[in-house]
Design goal:
The structure holds 2 protein chains of 2 kinds. Chain A is mainly β. Chain B has one domain. In chain B, the strands form 2 sheets. Chain B has a two-stranded antiparallel ribbon. Classes of the chains: A mainly beta, B alpha+beta. Chain B: One of its GO terms (cellular component) is U2 snRNP.
Chain lengths: 363, 131
């Protein structure tokens, strides 16, 4: 028997087809009346075969614009148009998709502002708008997405502040990726209340102020990447640090200052530790040698003083060590020749004296 | 001193990558094309057809470093190794951010490459292996 159709969904799909150029002729050859629309490429339907629940294309050239009639696919739960060379705005008619859980429009040339109506999609779990040409601010209305797990807006031309209330009612967020924009202002303190957060990527923006202390006390956080901003202030001390799952700690190219605290020494999963190009003072911490999974230490271009810790030579898993552009003194410990896995080492532009140990030739 | 090392903003090609893997010069060999990390190469850095030598003004694949542009119509430097992304950048999905070739190779990165070759050429031996 022929599955029951609904003309509304069919009309919406046909208009979608009409609005894209389909340069490779895939829709032209596959989306035809000779087959039910539920079997068309990229289309999935509910169990009754009547309603479209998914429209999903990835890494396939479509070109053209997104049809506003997609808003008529009232049972749509997944809209994925990733790397499909689309242009134009995001249709505001998407606010007629109350069941939408996944919205992925990454890697296109979509433009305009991010529509505030996206805040009406309260069942949304994943919002990917990254790598497009969106400009303007992040809509405050996104704060209403209380089921959101992934927010990815990186690699656009967004400006203005991150709305301070953006994370006040999004307890399920596990990934925040807002890097490579022109965002200004402070990091919202409410980030620290996201108990399920695993990844915080805010790098390559114009953010200022200090890091909210609560960010350094998050049980599931695996990556902190705030490189290349205008952030300032010290890193919280030992008593405030609790990041047991942290693997990537990247605070480079900011204006952080003060001594490097011992708090990160409790991050036993730490793989990358980068504080390069800041204003950190004091000594290079010897506790870095006690981190079992640490492979890369980048502390270049700071105001660090004292001697190179000989303890680092015991950390044979180290692959990269950059202490250049500081005010370190003393000699290079000959024990560094033990670091047989080392791929990069630099002590350039310090106040180091003495000779280069012969053992360095073992590297 | 601390902020003197900020690099100029790099503009990446960002067009859709093709199948070709980008190439880098000796100065940038071993570094992640997205973050300069030197550890855990995880994925080849694929470039668009134009930057791989299929067209456009980016030079041919075998000559041009996609990070600093060295080798594009210049003497001396040339691409010698495949480009890659590191593990952390793959995890943060930077490997999907379009073609990573730098289209406005800044003085900072170019100077780094020039210094590298200048230092090496003083010893004589390295350059001869590039012949």
């Amino acid at each position: 028997l022929t599955p029951p159709y609904n003309n509304t969904d069919l009309a919406a799909l046909l208009d979608f087809k009409e609005q894209v150029k389909d340069p490779n002729g895939i829709l032209a050859s596959n989306w035809t009346a000779s087959a039910p629309f539920c079997s068309w490429i990229g289309v999935s339907c509910d169990s009754s075969g009547k309603w479209v629940t998914g429209l999903e294309f990835e890494d396939m050239a479509l070109e053209g614009t997104i049809s506003p009639q997609i808003g008529n696919l009232s049972f749509l739960s997944s809209l994925v148009l990733s790397n499909t060379t689309l242009i134009g705005p995001v249709p505001t008619e998407l606010d007629r998709l109350p069941r939408l859980q996944t919205l992925v429009l990454s890697y296109n040339s979509l433009s305009g502002t991010i529509p505030s109506i996206l805040g009406n999609l309260t069942r949304l779990e994943s919002l990917y708008l990254n790598s497009n040409k969106f400009f303007g601010g992040i809509p405050q209305e996104l704060a209403n997405l209380n089921n959101l797990q992934i927010l990815r807006l990186s690699d656009n031309d967004l400006s203005g502040p991150i709305p301070q209330g953006l994370f006040n009612n999004t307890p399920n967020l596990s990934r925040i990726q807002l890097g490579s924009n022109r965002l200004t202002g402070a990091i919202p303190g409410s980030v620290g209340s996201l108990s399920k957060l695993e990844m915080l990527v805010l790098e390559n923006n114009l953010l200022s102020g200090s890091m909210p202390a609560a960010i350094f006390n998050m049980s599931y956080l695996q990556a902190i990447a705030v490189t290349r901003n205008n952030l300032r202030g010290p890193i919280p001390g030992n008593e405030s640090f609790h990041l047991p799952m942290l693997e990537f700690f990247s605070l480079g190219e900011n204006w952080f200052d003060g001594p490097i605290p011992s708090g990160p020494s409790k991050c036993q999963n730490l793989d990358l530790f980068s504080l390069a190009v800041n204003n950190f003072t004091g000594s290079v911490p010897s506790w870095l040698a006690t981190m079992p999974n640490l492979t890369a230490i980048y502390l270049s271009t700071n105001e660090l003083t004292g001697k190179i810790p000989v303890e680092l030579s015991n950390h044979t898993g180290l692959l990269a060590l950059d202490l250049s552009e500081n005010n370190l003194e003393g000699e290079i410990p000959p024990e560094f020749g033990q670091l047989r896995n080392l791929r990069y080492i630099s002590f350039a532009n310090n106040q180091i004296t003495g000779t280069i140990p012969e053992s360095i030739g073992n590297l | 001193m601390a902020m003197a090392k900020h690099q100029a903003d790099l503009v990446r090609c960002s067009r859709q990558p093709g199948a070709a893997v980008g190439r880098v010069c000796a100065a940038h060999d071993g570094r992640c094309v997205a973050c300069d990390s030197m550890v855990r190469p995880a994925a080849p850095a694929r470039v668009c057809d134009g930057c791989s030598g299929g067209g456009g003004g980016h030079g041919s694949r075998s000559e041009r470093c996609l990070v600093c542009g060295a080798g594009a119509g210049e003497g001396g430097a040339a691409a010698v190794a495949d480009a890659y992304y590191c593990r952390s950048c793959v995890q943060m999905e930077k490997d999907r951010d379009g073609c990573p070739a730098v289209v406005n190779a800044g003085t900072a990165r170019r100077d780094a490459a020039a210094f590298f070759f200048s230092a090496r050429s003083k010893r004589g031996g390295f350059r001869s292996t590039m012949a």
